[in-house]
Structure formats: structure tokens, C-alpha cells
Design brief:
The chain has 107 residues and is mainly alpha-helical. It is built from six helices and no strands.
Length: 107
């Protein structure tokens, strides 16, 4: 617990006024924004594949990197939001497996 207290003391004064709920809400908005942009990018990728001249291999090489980047961006944004949400509810997330968080770290 001493380490956590040191981390709070290291936080700058101007950021201490920002609530954790606000940060999680920001990350949720960021997740929604990334999903919308991924959807627009998906439409653009499908349009580019349909309009592209060339064989099937060319179309696959055009689509795969775009789809991978979109998937990773959505996964990252969702992960940040989930981590933030779980961080605000430590008592709930630590009791789900029947073990406390402290007991899990020491094993």
C-alpha cells in the first residue's frame, strides 16, 4: 500500500482536481470515436477493394493491413476503458474469484 501512496504523491497538483470518473468517461468517448472511425475506414477499405484494379492477391494485400490496424485500434481503446472502469471498482473486481487482490499478487 505504501507504493500506491507514493504514486499519488507524485501526481502534479493541477491533475489532482480531475476526477477518475471524468477520465473514464473520456476513455469511453475515445472508444466510441475509434469505433466510428474504424467503421468509416471499413467502408473506405471495402470501396477501395471493389474499385481496385488487379487480381485477388492485390485486393487482399490492400485489405489485410487496414483491417488489422482497425481491429487493434478498437481493441486498444476498449482495453483502456475497461482498465479504467475496473480500477474504479477494486472491491467488486477483487471478490469475483473468491480471492482478494493482495492474495492473488503474492501467489
Amino acid at each position: 500500500m505504501k507504493k500506491m501512496e507514493n504514486l499519488v504523491e507524485m501526481e502534479p497538483q493541477f491533475t489532482q482536481a480531475i476526477s477518475s470518473r471524468f477520465v473514464c468517461d473520456y476513455l469511453y468517448f475515445y472508444f466510441i470515436l475509434v469505433c466510428v472511425l474504424a467503421g468509416v475506414s471499413l467502408i473506405g477499405t471495402v470501396s477501395a477493394i471493389v474499385l481496385a484494379k488487379g487480381g485477388l492477391v492485390t485486393k487482399i494485400l490492400l485489405a489485410v493491413p487496414n483491417l488489422l490496424v482497425m481491429g487493434l485500434a478498437v481493441l486498444l481503446a476498449m482495453s483502456l476503458y475497461i482498465i479504467c472502469e475496473r480500477g474504479l471498482r477494486p472491491e467488486e473486481s477483487s471478490n469475483k474469484g473468491g480471492r482478494s487482490a493482495e492474495g492473488y499478487r503474492t501467489r
